[in-house]
Amino acid sequence: MATFGVGLSAMNFLADLAAVADGFSFSHVTLSMASVFSLLVASTLGSEGFLTPEVVLTLIPTAPLLAAAIIALLGKPLLKERSHLVTVAAFLVSFVMSLILMFQDLPAAATQHGPDVVESAVDHEHQKSYGPAVIAPIFEWVNIGSVNVRVDLRADAMTAMMLVMVTGVSLLVALFASGYMHGDPGYPRFFAAVSLFVFSMTMLVLAPSFLMLFVFWEAVGLCSYLLIGFWFKKPSAAAAAKKAFVVNRIGDFGFILGVFLIWVNFGSLNFADVLGRPDKLEALATQSPELVTGICLLLFLGAMGKSAQFPLHVWLPDAMEGPTPVSALIHAATMVTAGVYMVARCTPLFVLAPQAQVVVASVGAITALVAALTALTQHDLKRVMAYSTVSQLGYMFMALGAGAAGKDHATFAVTAAMFHLFTHAYFKALLFLASGSVMHAMGDVIDMRRFSGLKHALPITHWTFLAGAGALAGLPLLAGFWSKDDILAALQTAAEHSPYPGVFKVIFAVAAVTALLTAFYTFRAYFLTFHGPEKFPEEAGHHPHEVTPVMGWPLRILAVCALGIGILVGPLTHWFPSTLGQTPGLSHHEAHGLHFGLMAVSAVIAIAGVGAAFVVYIKGRASIDGLPSKFGPLHKLSLNKFYFDEIFTGAIVLPLRGLAKVAFALDQLLVDPLVDLFGAIPRWISSIPRVLHNGLVSSYAIVMFTGLLVIVLFALQVLAG
Amino acid sequence: MSADYERFLVVGAALFALGAIGFLSRRNLILMVLSAEMMLHGIGLSLVTFSKLHHSLEGQAFTVFVLTVAACEAGLALSLILLLYQSKKSLDVNVWTEIREPDLPPPVDSSSPVAEEDLQEFPKLTPAGLQPDVSRFGNQAGRELVSASQKGGQS
Description:
The complex is a heterodimer.
Chain A: H1 2-22, H2 26-45, H3 53-79, H4 83-113, H5 117-123, E1 134-144, E2 147-155, H6 157-180, H7 187-206, H8 210-228, H9 235-266, H10 271-274, H11 278-287, H12 289-306, H13 315-318, H14 324-333, H15 338-345, H16 347-350, H17 354-375, H18 381-401, H19 407-441, H20 459-473, H21 479-497, H22 501-530, H23 549-572, H24 575-580, H25 596-619, H26 627-631, H27 633-639, H28 644-686, H29 697-720
Antiparallel strand pairs in A: 1-2
Helix pairs in contact in A: 1-2, 2-4, 3-4, 3-7, 4-6, 4-7, 6-7, 6-14, 6-19, 6-23, 7-8, 8-9, 9-12, 11-12, 12-15, 12-17, 14-19, 17-18, 17-22, 18-19, 18-21, 18-22, 19-20, 19-21, 19-23, 20-22, 20-23, 21-22, 21-23, 21-25, 22-25
Chain B: H1 2-25, H2 29-53, H3 58-88, H4 140-154
Helix pairs in contact in B: 1-2, 2-3
């Protein structure tokens, strides 16, 4: 019965895919969505058919990889403007497989495995994994001496959470992009790179070892580079891509040093051998606590690069040079959260290094505050969103650092961070896509001074943007409210229980101020864009067009998520914390009660921020122009992004350029002549015999005969004794 | 009996020496090849003699191989010489001095002592036999063939 259901819905699904390939209207997509869910239901009902856990796990990264290969090979000559169909189909497969993994295979693995994570990891040392997880062995990569590196896929609760989020958001963004990128000459290239990115990102979260994590850490960096520099003929885009790559290298440098340290001290890079051995970790921490702190700090340096934390945050705002769907997918929802994911994954390590966690929390706090202050004055709508992303990532790191409160509270802190990561992905992707839709309608103008009052011209964009802005600002009951509330609670716990109460009190205050600023600048952007007198830039033409359905529906779906997903998986069902608690390394904990006091505070903060924005930008719209002069240097500081770019240019880029010039001069004046000298010696020695080589056959013959004669005479001499 | 062998060996050595001298002193490509052949046969003769002397067939077997290879080599050498001649219209080996160190001056006596034009006298065959009947071709190709053969005969 169940098998029949699976077969039926699979056929239905394939037929829908074919229909999508035919015409691609939105009814088809909804149809295939329906069939996807029937497939899901049918397979959940009971199936040991072809979708074994290994197949499910393998399909998640393979589908986007295949799509990337197909588009890269056939995109330009064959697929052209149909390239997105391959990508969308692949992402759909990945998304469905992630859901199956989340709701069917993982619970099955958990019941098989039993809840007692720690014991089993010790008992089954030979096992490649620890804790309840689904594993798909792929192949052995390196096996030399004691070094054994396997390329496997491993999914536990945290991975599944990331997979559902990544593939889900990617699917919606790919749909949006098919409308947004329409008519671009690089259309197939875009979808090939996005598919490659989703492959890399899924592999990153599926990695079973630090080495694999690092490999795909770099791979997502590469995809990010390719997509930021998508319009590579634009000098600013090329420079932004280069900047992102170079700044990330600084972080990666720390990351790989941390990985080396782990290798030296643990003799293995598998998560199971490093994170799954609490006894060994404890022993190491008591023996040399500074070593664990060092490892954690180095790993965190990697996370700072990838997740754009102060002072390595400078690349993320520039990354907005890429196409807006890329900003939404890579530079807001998925890739930049890899750092948060990595630190959360290494919780067993970070728990043992409270100093490192204080650093994590402090860096997060500084980032959140600085980025929020910068976002206050930016004119570029996408840049406001970019700084807000940096700020929210800082929030997540604050929460991760709050694990310093001790082992019992670490799980709560990490859950808060991951919860914020989860909700943030939806509402920030939504905000970026809505900004993209504004940009699309305004003829690629994104400067908020040049348009206003768009709420009548772009109703769908307006309402969806409002939903995202509300969620970001943390208005009560929306997605961001719950996760932000959790983070504040985690910080409060840290202030009470950690060895550094003073530091965490300050960080808590910073978090509260940042929440206020977030609400303010988000609604500043909203009021400036959608309210006030209707004004369009001349690039927009006579009448700005609202989004096409293919762009509108992803916005609507994301808006629903932004409004409801927080309460749905958080306080209403406690599904998120209870699922994430199954991650090895995190302990089960009772669902925290709602923190009504904190909720009231954060609700007041959010409403105050929105109200302030309303007062300043709606009531006082006439006097906006006078605002900068009121704040004077403060306004200038914020507008110029705290002069970080200038400071880096002066302190790092210019000295390094000078050093490069010195090195070049040394090379020219010292090294090159030396090398030339060594080249000249053989030439000089050979100048003697080379006169023999005069091209005359007879002279060669003479030389040959002379040589022969000498040999013969010598031989005779020897023979004669 | 041994004196006979010595005679053979002397002849062989003489052949080799003459060939060597010829190879070194001659500038005509064909004569140089001939000299080389002479050296080869001097050695062949010595090999056969020694084979007889030591009652071993190895030397003779070698010689048979040498003769075979020499035949091939002669054919190859002559065809190469023909090609060389066609490209420079000269058999003088000193004309071919391009393959030397690039910054060395050309060898002193690179030019041939004999003017090439004076060497351009080839023997001519008198036309003999009947004019071939080409009427059966009956087409343009046939007429061209005839006129070509007539032209060849005249020159």
